[in-house]
Amino acid sequence: MNTIRTVEASSHIGQQVRLTGWLHNVRRLGGVSFVVLRDGWGTIQAVTESEADLAPIAELSLESVIALTGTVVATPQAPGSVELHQPQIEVITPVMEPAPVPLQQKRLKAGLPTLLDHAVVANRHPERRAVFRLASGAMAGFRKTLRANHFTEIQSPKLVASATESGANVFKLEYFGGDAFLAQSPQFYKQIMVGVFARVFEVGPVFRAEPHDTTRHVNEYVSLDVEFGFIENHFTVMAMVRMVLAGIFQTLAEGYAEELELLKANLPEVPAEIPHIHFAEAQELIWQRHGVDVRGEPDLSPQDERWLGEWAQQAHGSDFLFVVGYPMGKRPFYTHPDPQNPAYSNSFDLLFRGTELITGGQRLHVYADYLAALEKANLPTEPFETYLEAFRYGMPPHGGFAIGLERLLMQLLGLPNLRLATLFPRDQKRLTP
Amino acid sequence: MNTIRTVEASSHIGQQVRLTGWLHNVRRLGGVSFVVLRDGWGTIQAVTESEADLAPIAELSLESVIALTGTVVATPQAPGSVELHQPQIEVITPVMEPAPVPLQQKRLKAGLPTLLDHAVVANRHPERRAVFRLASGAMAGFRKTLRANHFTEIQSPKLVASATESGANVFKLEYFGGDAFLAQSPQFYKQIMVGVFARVFEVGPVFRAEPHDTTRHVNEYVSLDVEFGFIENHFTVMAMVRMVLAGIFQTLAEGYAEELELLKANLPEVPAEIPHIHFAEAQELIWQRHGVDVRGEPDLSPQDERWLGEWAQQAHGSDFLFVVGYPMGKRPFYTHPDPQNPAYSNSFDLLFRGTELITGGQRLHVYADYLAALEKANLPTEPFETYLEAFRYGMPPHGGFAIGLERLLMQLLGLPNLRLATLFPRDQKRLTP
């Protein structure tokens, strides 16, 4: 008898099957007992009126690892519409004490510190597990869309020689008697690799030593990075953002319906063209609609973003809004200015339901422009020497963007804290589990 | 007119097309000039007898970024069997000085230090690029095979609280006034996540502070990690290794023929069942065949592995050989012993053409066994507290393996140094580019 997965049971009606997993719950209703097995994909319930059937687990705690054999019966009122009858339970690994979080609850009732301290076990709960299954699906959809568009995957080094990109907020480590730093992003490497593959993407960890203790910051996260050449300007990049987001949500819709339903997630529609507004117009709009004069501010506040999100919903029926043309002063030195108005940049943020999700834009590509930009930013050229080599020997107009995987999940699922979208979060006070 | 990629030209015979890329080479033969454009995927040559056609690039160096318009003509003797006629060249980004490595050479003639110092540019060479395109294909084949077998992708943290796994050879960093370490592998997290998803994989960087200066070591590499539950023993894991390798090589065969041909790579046949030999028998075999008495040694030497590789080829016609049952003393504390002979382990190495490529095995899964193993290894339990929580609350028999991406490429392509299979290698003396 082959072992099947819980989610395959409905294709085996009337057959005897074997399943393996964890003892998720045991309930007694009158003389009837329900034994729920959870495997890596779902749960299934076995029903019996015989106490003898339960004897193997009588002394054991939930989370014991078991094999369950029985006959699959279609049962419309059961969860998943199937049940196992005449169950036989075999214990694989007995557990003798109750888990630190009550995994058998439909909704896991535990405070954030408990959830995080015991994430090793808490992530087994179907709702917590669904978050990270969706993370897996988002990565798959991201890669699938880009590969179909002739992008090549790279894995760039995370150990770097200097805290070049922004200077601050970088982790330093001892490296064979000298210092090294952890990459804050693959920015320089993905640009360099445009010179090799023309179109590249990377999925990998980035490290930010930011001392922020907020619900929206962690110190290590997964960045979905894209960079490609031969663009017209940032609008070419924004069209790719749209395609990638549509690909991610399509992948989730097609392959992750159960997880989305369990989490009551509302997949957004990605419009054929995502609306955009210029940074200066956005500030003007906020002044006119809300009477708050943010004109001339160098950046948008979270409240500004929420207002713009509302406006995008009302004016365009869109969960998404590009804000384009951020002032050059707030963007990194490699940002390409707007040729018509060099105080503004060919960059963008994508707001998703009123919160920034993606940052991107066109980069400088001419060697002399880099030298001028570094001088203007009062930065020395020496730490950038190898990066600059890419531009010295020919780079096309190019640009790209980055999506924070955990932030995408947080916003998609309406989670109150980024840590709940992070498998094992790292913050100022947390390095375990 | 749409811009096409070089590799698409043969589907546009007789049409006028536009291509964009780098000026890869210019050659003159009598009155005929050949202009070679390289894009992110291949090269194409344009032919002209008119000097005027070349005027836009007359003063420029190779690697200038250009657009090339012309008519595609089938030309069996040309590289790629097509040429562009009546070319028009438009300069996108001019380059004024020759590249630090001669990219236009068919085989890139440069010493290792030059290749590595100038990797930013050297990786543009078609042969160097092909290595990293194959890396991309190997990752894709790895993921595709595992997803088809119901594995879920995870991204585990690289910042960890203690140098737990082996103690030595770990990078330490300053973390908000305390210390953190860089993960040497996702070992603990992938095991923990078997408790959540039953079957998991990860592709990500690992960090080894090993002070080795050899052709086979770098200090950061990409690890392809697999872990799954409900196994019989290490032979279940070895069957999965076989499936994953076959999937990787099939993906390369189907989608990367040009790169393989360019690098004269010889894809191995993965036998339906990869032969295996017990560690003790392997030592006996070496004694009998080569008269070197390695019996009782705790590990195999590189020479031992080469001899065993030769034997696998002669006795089984196989590029691959599993050596199983390594002595427990040389394996990490979480290794599952051989129940029949507890001095040996349920672990394996896979030799590929006489060199170790993959290490894996069955792990302990019973909580009490972990406590005993830590005590035997003289390790405290406290740094392992959250890891142990997984086993305290029910883990199935499980195991897994890890493939070093760069080592796979090195052995597949017969490269003399692991650094040549690494995009931007990190070693004791090298943190740039």
Task: Summarize the model shown.
By secondary structure, chain A is α+β, with helices and mostly antiparallel strands. In chain A, 30% of the residues lie in helices and 27% in strands.
Topology:
Two copies of one chain form a homodimer.
Chain A: E1 16-29, E2 32-38, E3 43-48, H1 51-54, E4 65-74, E5 82-93, H2 112-117, H3 119-122, H4 126-148, E6 152-153, E7 159-160, E8 172-175, E9 178-182, H5 187-197, E10 199-207, E11 220-229, H6 234-255, H7 257-262, E12 276-278, H8 279-290, H9 302-316, E13 320-324, E14 337-338, E15 341-345, E16 347-352, E17 355-363, H10 367-376, H11 385-392, E18 398-404, H12 405-413
Parallel strand pairs in A: 3-5, 6-10, 12-13
Antiparallel strand pairs in A: 1-2, 1-4, 2-3, 4-5, 7-9, 8-9, 10-11, 11-18, 13-16, 14-15, 16-17, 17-18
Key words describing this protein structure:
homodimer, 433 residues, OB fold (Dihydrolipoamide Acetyltransferase, E2P), 2 domains, 12 helices, 18 strands
